[in-house]
Amino acid sequence: MFKTHKYQTLFKFSFLYALQNYKTLIGLIIFLITCMTIFAHLWQVVADKTEAMHLHSSQLLWYIAFNEWLLIALPDIQDDIEEDLHSGRLAYLLPRPISYLWFMFIEGLGVLCARLIVLGFSTFIFTWIRTGDIPFTWSTFLFVIIIGMLAGCVGIIFKMLIGVSAFCEYSCALVG
Amino acid sequence: MKEIIKVTKLSKNFFIRKNFPGIVGALKSLFHPQTIEWTAIKEISFSIVQGERVAFIGPNGAGKSTTIKMLTGILYPSSGAIEVLGLTPWEKRSALGYQIGTVFGQRTQLWYHLPPLDTFHLLSKIYEIDPCAYKRRLEELIGIFEISMFLHKPVRQLSLGERMRCELVASLLHNPQILFLDEPTIGLDINAKLKIRSLLNKLSKEYGTTLFLTSHDTADIEQVCDRVIVLDHGVIILDSSLRELKKAYVKKKILSLTTDQETLFLQIPGLHVLENKNYHFVCEVNLSDTPIDLVIHEALKLTSLKDVTIEDPSMEEIIRTLYGTTRDV
Predict the structure, then answer these.
(1) Tens digit of each residue's pLDDT (9 = 90 or more) over A53-83
(2) Which residues on B lie below 8 Å from A90 (Cβ)?
(3) Which residues on neighbouring strands pair with residue B38, listed in sequence order?
(4) Could you tell me if the ipTM is greater than 0.90?
């Protein structure tokens, strides 16, 4: 039986954990803003040279902002799984009455949500200040956030698959 | 007494991939992988009754951790049977999880940036502990393990000893019947080690928790356990009570005499003098050659004795002798 209260609490704690780990969040914000600045300039140069840019530069920056926001917010869950396996922490997690994979997914989701909020806010402010306008409606904005969340879930699943592949390196059999 | 762990002819084989050095070797490993079968555990059998405190010891690579992993359901055995609290661990791992606790000295289950109290709260949800029962249990454990001072401190700011006490509390919140401890005192200072050992004793006495402990620290074994299972090369080479182990393997005693004479000259077979100066005579007596009373009797013929001390060799020496015996075999 899937007992939701366990996962609700886990989500809450991983969300809180990501916020407590504020140094990582600050690092990610700096990284994201650096990436956006570089890509914005890069695209501008490419577009000038090739006349390939059909979007307005502010639209382009918003497009880059959404992409980077999502990609940088994704937690490195594959590293966590590999670390659990290599360090032996798995020995703590597996005997618990909770699915390890669900545990990792919900934990990742909690971190993702915390990062999406913090990075989203920073990205929004940065892009808004830089472009000076918001070239979309609020309903589009809401839609992008929902799509971003769903894409984040898919991203976590893919990263989990990469992490789980580390088990193939070991001859130990993962039960269940 | 009720048997709560029953292991019958348990074996575990691993297939290890053979890697060749260099780029050519890496390509060879990729296209033509070779594996070696390695037997970690060879048909071991033992059983443990409720409330027992068992030390499961052996040199590195003996198969201790592999056995614990099979007992907790993390690994499948290659052959043989295990029953823990009436359940087959790898088939009913989740159900078993509610009744067992694990403590691994080198790893942590506490969330690094959060205070231990948060991890305890999360674990109470994972183990589905009733909120009132959780509150009661937590208060009890906080009292026993004396962790109230650092309950609200982030784990990253705790010392290793404090962290280990919190790890124990985390593992005991759901009141497990069996506690598996894999080197719980590793890296701790002497005071922290003493504290952990005394807490484990208290826990076993107050709650009747069965302890299954692996450690390289012989003091852990002496001060916490009442039974020893020695594993070497995946085979059980000894399974006895601590008292019997000492009786069977203590073939030598250390005799210290404080005499009236500055030095003492005793020529007795089986006697190895370790110190003989300043009115102090220390020797190792091989009990199979000479009874200890004979040495004292002979000494009394030569001088009067101000003090006599007879010591057993250290547990470490006994264990070393044990490992050595099997290596020779």
Answers:
(1) 666 777 788 888 988 999 999 999 999 898 8
(2) 74
(3) B14
(4) no
